[in-house]
Amino acid sequence: GENVEQHPSTLSVQEGDSAVIKCTYSDSASNYFPWYKQELGKRPQLIIDIRSNVGEKKDQRIAVTLNKTAKHFSLHITETQPEDSAVYFCAASRGSSASKIIFGSGTRLSIRP
Amino acid sequence: SQTIHQWPATLVQPVGSPLSLECTVEGTSNPNLYWYRQAAGRGLQLLFYSVGIGQISSEVPQNLSASRPQDRQFILSSKKLLLSDSGFYLCAWSVRVDEQFFGPGTRLTVL
To answer: Considering only CB atoms, which chain B residues are within 8 Å of A45?
Structure first.
């Protein structure tokens, strides 16, 4: 069945440095790739997404890249700040109205002051 | 605007007791509805999803069940809770599949 693998499971970076989280997916029909951020004890919230017709998307300090040939996509956070500390989930979907979103296992990002 | 509600927010139940968690969505029609479970420090496990009233798809064999009696109501149930049912239960909705919105969650502890 469909599968999304996410690495690393934990990541610690110095404040101000960049953080990169990588995901691979198995379903070649996937065409929608969202990223969610979950702060401690709270619900996951969408922070950025990308569709298969785009190779890169940027929103301020956050960017996502997609390589459909290799079936992998990545989240890049630049100039990290303490409030970036959270668990990040990647996901993949076929993008139809009855499709499921398959989530990765999550990355716990810690920002060291 | 659309909102999603879940209750209760927290729940402590003994092993073997029944369970009923409720999720309701406001401000949208015919949403896709989802139940996820998140064990402590773990990822999101999709339990059930529904594309319409009375239509439930189960993802993982378990002692839980789901029902959708109304368009914007999704209920997660169990007849007899197990210790392994403890976790953070999240309901989510989507109209277009390209964005899924999560509810505030129910933290369930089974003792």
So the answer is: 102
Burial category of B21 from C-beta neighbours within 10 Å (exposed 0-12, middle 13-18, buried 19 and up):
buried
Residue B75 structure tokens: 């209920």
Question: What residues of chain A lie within 8 A of the CB of B34, using their CB?
Answer: 100
Tens-digit pLDDT profile for residues B54-103: 999 988 767 899 999 999 999 999 999 999 999 999 999 988 766 889 99
Bridge partners (DSSP) listed for residue A43: none
Strands (E) in chain B, as ranges, are 3-7, 10-13, 19-26, 32-38, 45-52, 55-58, 64-70, 73-78, 87-94, 101-102, 106-110
Q: Estimate to the nearest angstrom the gap between the alpha carbon of A79 and the chain centroid.
A: 17
Contacts 24+ apart (CB under 8 A), B57-65: B59/A100, B64/B19
Chain A contact present for B103, CB below 8 A:
yes
Cβ-Cβ contacts under 8 Å, B91 against chain A: none
Q: Which residue in B41, B90, B98 is closest to A32 by CB distance?
A: B98
Q: What is the mean pLDDT of each run of 10 residues along chain A (113 residues)?
A: 90 98 94 94 94 91 96 97 97 78 94 94
* Cα–Cα distance, B13 to B4 (Å, whole number): 24
pLDDT of B1 higher than 80: no
The CB density around residue A9, as the number of other CB atoms within 10 Å, is 13
